[in-house]
């Protein structure tokens, strides 16, 4: 997996943060699944507040997005707090949360049953050194934990969009996520359950109080917010009426909010929609705002229809506009249409399609896709070249103003994150960075914010397109 592909979730989170933070919207409002495959060992943490658990989730999400083990991780403080759904401006309290996270320790013990002397034990801080300066937060995570975060042997998907108001709901949800595939937990002694939920005070000596004040509210919140459905069974101690054990039944809720559903493929499709289709920031925002209706399958359907129509010469103006219309109206292309395009179908439609004909259609489809991909590559290159020609035609002041306008777009911020370049310095990437040239070329052709600039020479468009700064 490449670094660029692996950081897609991070880029999507950044883009959503840029769109939603100015509106004071929580990550819970973001219409996309932001999260990571969390190692099952991290559900074992105890005695941490709800906010501190969210802080560790946010930190580990950031760590998971880079393939290599790093000494430090640095992100904008506002972005970090957005990921952990922290809206307070109390800096002292936030710092206290970081210190609490540093005090959390994960213990690992492995004793060889055949060798009493081979008793292996380790304790590692869940968060290392933390620094905050100039609007940034810099933190360290022990190397062994980084490896467990980046390459978990057993894991579950943790959605950062799922925000509980109850600490007990958060703890129970985290404990139950790894057992969804098994359908639930084994029988758990009450004492073990009390340790799980940090209910060790005398208030919870009797199970009826744990059930009434802790379990029932937590299960209700999990069932209403998450994508798993939880129920509780109890079992008495032998020969008594006293509850001695409990177990939880867990199943994926098909109507839930999707922490167990596939992650949104929007992040997988981002490069295609951005580079090939050339969607604008406004069009991306419209898709994100309608993700419940415009599913992954529908996006791919519209994409295939757009490619099919482009191949037939039916896309005469804006490819991105054509795609959006196909997406909104649910246009589709069938295998017979593809076969007709390549001359591989029976126009009369008299005989039913036999197995051999199905294979022919499939081969035709594969050939069509290969040709289509080549055509799309040529189109992207053409858009890039024409857009960069417009950029190069500007004088120095005009180029600076164009770059300033481009720096305000989401693609610019994504490129800055990918390349670790300040947004204001993206101009240094124009000559040799393919991402930058494609995004800037598309921006120049499509328009966007149009600063007042001067051209070196008048160059009228020859293809009927109203380019950037020429409209």
UniProtKB/TrEMBL annotation:
SUPFAM superfamilies hit by this protein: Winged helix' DNA-binding domain (SSF46785)
One GO molecular function term of this record is: DNA-directed DNA polymerase activity
Q: Name one Pfam family in it.
A: Rep3_C
Q: Where is this region: Disordered?
A: 449-471
GO biological process terms, alphabetically, are:
DNA replication initiation
User: Where does the record place the Initiator Rep protein WH1 domain?
Assistant: 39-162
Coiled coil (UniProt feature): none
What the entry lists under InterPro entries is as follows: Initiator_Rep_WH1, WH-like_DNA-bd_sf, WH_DNA-bd_sf
Which controlled-vocabulary keywords does the entry list? Answer: Plasmid
Domain of life per record: Bacteria
Please report which protein family the annotation says this sequence is part of: Belongs to the initiator RepB protein family.
What's the protein name? Answer: Initiator RepB protein
């Amino acid at each position: 997996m490449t670094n660029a592909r692996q950081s897609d979730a991070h880029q999507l989170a950044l883009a959503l943060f840029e769109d939603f933070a100015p509106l004071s919207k929580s990550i819970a409002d973001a219409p996309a699944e932001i999260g990571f495959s969390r190692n099952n060992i991290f559900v074992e943490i105890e005695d941490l507040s709800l906010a501190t658990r969210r802080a560790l989730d946010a930190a580990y999400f950031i760590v998971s997005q880079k393939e290599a083990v790093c000494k430090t991780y640095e992100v904008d403080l506002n972005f970090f707090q957005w990921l952990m759904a922290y809206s307070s401006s109390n800096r002292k309290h936030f710092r206290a949360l970081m210190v609490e996270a540093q005090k959390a320790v994960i213990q690992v013990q492995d004793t060889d049953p055949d060798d009493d002397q081979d008793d292996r034990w380790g304790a590692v801080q869940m968060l290392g050194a933390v620094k905050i300066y100039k609007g940034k937060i810099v933190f360290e995570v022990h190397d062994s934990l980084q490896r467990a975060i980046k390459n978990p042997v057993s894991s579950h998907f943790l959605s950062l969009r799922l925000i509980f108001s109850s600490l007990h709901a958060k703890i129970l949800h985290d404990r139950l996520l790894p057992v969804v595939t098994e359908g639930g937990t084994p029988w758990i002694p009450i004492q073990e359950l009390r340790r799980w939920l940090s209910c060790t005070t005398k208030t919870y000596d009797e199970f009826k109080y744990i059930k009434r004040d802790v379990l029932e509210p937590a299960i209700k919140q999990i069932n209403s917010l998450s994508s798993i459905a939880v129920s509780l069974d109890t079992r008495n101690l032998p020969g008594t009426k006293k509850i001695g054990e409990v177990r939880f039944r867990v199943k994926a809720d098909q109507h839930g909010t999707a922490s167990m559903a596939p992650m949104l493929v929007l992040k997988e499709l981002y490069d295609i929609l951005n580079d090939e289709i050339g969607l604008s920031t406004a069009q991306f925002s419209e898709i994100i705002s309608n993700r419940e209706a415009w599913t992954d399958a529908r996006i791919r359907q519209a994409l295939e229809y757009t490619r099919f129509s482009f191949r037939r010469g039916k896309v005469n103006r804006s490819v991105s506009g054509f795609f959006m219309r196909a997406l909104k109206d649910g246009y589709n292309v069938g295998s017979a249409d593809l076969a007709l395009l390549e001359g591989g179908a029976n126009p009369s439609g008299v005989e039913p399609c036999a197995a051999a004909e199905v294979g022919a259609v499939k081969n035709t489809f594969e050939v069509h896709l290969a040709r289509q991909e080549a055509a799309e590559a040529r189109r992207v290159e053409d858009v890039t070249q024409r857009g960069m020609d417009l950029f190069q035609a500007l004088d120095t002041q005009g180029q600076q103003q164009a770059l300033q306008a481009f720096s305000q777009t989401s693609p610019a911020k994504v490129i800055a994150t990918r390349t670790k370049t300040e947004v204001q310095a993206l101009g240094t990437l124009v000559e040799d960075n393919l991402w930058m040239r494609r995004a800037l070329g598309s921006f120049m052709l499509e328009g966007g914010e149009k600063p007042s600039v001067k051209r070196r020479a008048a160059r009228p468009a020859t293809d009927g397109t109203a380019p950037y700064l020429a409209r």
